Structure formats: C-alpha cells, structure tokens
Amino acid sequence: MDHPDQQDLYVDDPRAEVGPHVPRAARSVLDVGCGRGGFGLTLRDVLGSQARLVAVEPVASQATLARVGHGYDEVYTGYFPDALADSGERFDLVTFNDVLEHVIDPAVLLTAAIERLHPSGWVLATIPNVRFLPVVLDLVRRDRWDYADWGVLDRTHLRFFTRSTMVELLESAGLVDVRAAGVNSVFGLSRFRRYRPLAGRIGSAEFMQYVVVGRRA
C-alpha cells in the first residue's frame, strides 16, 4: 500500500478529536467497527471506568487485538447487527467511526442501531466530507477524482456525503436533535494555510470529516 501508516490509523486511531463530542451521560456504548480498538481508549478516558463499553468488529484478527488493553468490556467478532443477534443488550450510545460510507445502505445500519438504543439514547457517526476543499479543488481545477488507499476518496467507500446530507441521513432514520461538528480542518495542512482568510467563505469545505450526533426520539 502507498500509505501503510494511514491504513494503520484507520483501524487503531484513538480518534481523540471525537472525544469532545461523545455524550457525557452515556453509561453504555456499542462501538460498531472498532478495528484494533483505538477508539475504546478515548471512550474510556471520556466516560470513565464505570461505563460499559462493547464493540463489534468483522475482521477477526483486529477484534482479537481490540480485546486487549483498549478499554472494552466485550468485543464481538462479526458484522453488525448479526453479531449481536443472541444478545438483548441495549445501549445509551452507538458509534460508527468511518463505517457508514463503506456500506451500500447506511440507513439499514442506523435503523439497527436505533433498535439497540435505550430511550433517548444517541447515535454518533464520523463521516468523510466529500466537499472537503482539496477534493473540490482537484475536481474543479484539475478535472480529477482520484481514489486512494485512504482519506475522503478511499477506494472502498461506497457512499459520499456532505455535511447537510449527513444530517439528513440521521434525521431520515428517525433521530432528532441532530448536530454536526467539523473535525480535521484543511488548515492543518501546510499547503492550504494560505486559504485561511477564506475560512468564512468556504464553510463546510474546511473539514475533512464531520462528527454527527443524533438522539432517539
């Protein structure tokens, strides 16, 4: 692969930038697609030792790694929701980090997640932003839409979203009070810092991803 280090981040990144957006009242969490478990460390740090953290991961080797030293109380191997078919457990929060863009119909996963929530529980998803400035500039200036091994145009992505369509996705699933917060600003990339004076004009194009949170009605 061209970017093995970035690939490792996909499955082991603690996603510290997501921590501030985790609902603090959550006492139980289901982390869907946990990879090697990096996000479990952030969840444990944010929610404390009393929270119950459960994860599900389809790749057996990664699920094995996630079980050790990442803060989870239990890790299922398999695909959600089937991996939990024999469990009736419900949660205060279901998370999808870089998952929904990899499936044909993300609404199906969201519906399954809502069924696993306690009343007034939350769904949190991080989703790449196809309106990200580097993607837009390549498309408009260079007539290019180049897939890669990682990033917004990861070649394994089946769906693409903007901030507004992310919000609509969660709302159409029946979630309420949906909010979206940008993370991973383009201005963190040195070659794009000259665009900083335009920050107020480029709007959602500033962020590589959004953290989208909605509550069960």
Give a description of the structure:
- The protein is of the alpha/beta class and 217 residues long.
- It has one domain (4-216): Rossmann fold (3-Layer(aba) Sandwich), CATH 3.40.50.
- It has seven helices and seven strands, in the order αβαβαββαβααβαβ.
- The chain has helices at residues 4-12, 38-47, 60-66, 106-115, 133-142, 163-172, 199-202; strands at 28-32, 52-57, 74-77, 91-97, 117-128, 175-185, 207-216.
- It has a seven-stranded mixed beta sheet, with helices on both faces.
- Strand 4, helix 4 and strand 5 (117-128) form a beta-alpha-beta unit.
- The longest helix is centred in the N-terminal third of the chain and has 10 residues, at 38-47.
- It is globular.
- The termini are far apart.
- Mean pLDDT is 94; it is low at 1-5.
